[in-house]
Amino acid sequence: MKIIVIDDSEIIRNLLQEYLTDLGYEVELAVDGQEGIDKALANDYQVAFCDIHMPKKNGYQVLKEVTGQKTGMVFIMTDSLPDKLAEMANEAGAYCCLKKPFDLDEIKTVLKNVISMVKSL
Fold first, then answer.
1. How many independent structural domains does the chain possess?
2. What is the pLDDT of residue 121?
3. Average pLDDT over residues 24-40
4. Region class of 72: left (phi > 0), else alpha (psi between -120 and 50), else beta
5. Exposure pattern of 18-56 as b/e (b: 16+ CB <10 Å)?
6. Model-level pTM?
7. DSSP character for 57?
8. Could you read off the pLDDT of 65-80 as tens digits, one per residue?
9. Which CATH number fits the domain that encloses residue 75?
10. Which of 25, 41, 89, 103 is deepest in the core (most CB within 10 A)?
11. Which of 110, 101, 121 is nearest to 11 (CA)?
12. Contact yes or no for 43/30 (Cβ under 8 A)
């Protein structure tokens, strides 16, 4: 499974990349919303971990632009203080919004549920 991590925090990007790679996933990174959109539209990722508050394009904008042009990618949003944008992202089709700092076991559980959901489609 290919995953993209879209987050303006280098610490979060590196943490998720290392953890998800250790779990056996292929992981690519994007440093802001616009780069995330560009990469998501140019590649076949099954899952996106996407921060809500980022420069250039926020997570809600990333979700809307990507899912408006591509189907089948599951968005897991992340945010330190989930707010109206997180709520809007969930209403627009995000799988969930994980609150930072998140527990790595929570990520593993969410991914297990996403994989089950994708396989049943």
1. 1
2. 56
3. 97
4. left
5. eebeeeebebebbbbbbbbbebbeeeebbbbbbbbbbee
6. 0.94
7. S
8. 999 999 889 999 999 8
9. 3.40.50.2300
10. 89
11. 101
12. no
Token pair in block for residue 38: 């560009």
Q: How confident is the model at residue 87 (pLDDT cuts 50, 70, 90)?
A: confident
How many other C-beta atoms are found inside a 10 Å radius of the C-beta of residue 99? 14
Domain range for residue 94?
2-120
Retrieve residue 114's tokens: 């996403």
Radius of gyration of the chain (CA): 13
Q: Which two tokens stand for residue 93?
A: 């089709």
3-state secondary structure 19-39: HHHHCCCEEEEECCHHHHHHH
Continuous segment of H or E residues that includes residue 113: helix 104-120
The HSE-up count of residue 14 (CA atoms within 13 Å, CB side) is 3
The model's pLDDT over 93-118, given as tens digits with 9 standing for 90+, comes to: 999 999 888 899 999 999 999 988 87
pLDDT for residue 82 = 67
| CB neighbourhood size of 104 (10 A) | 14
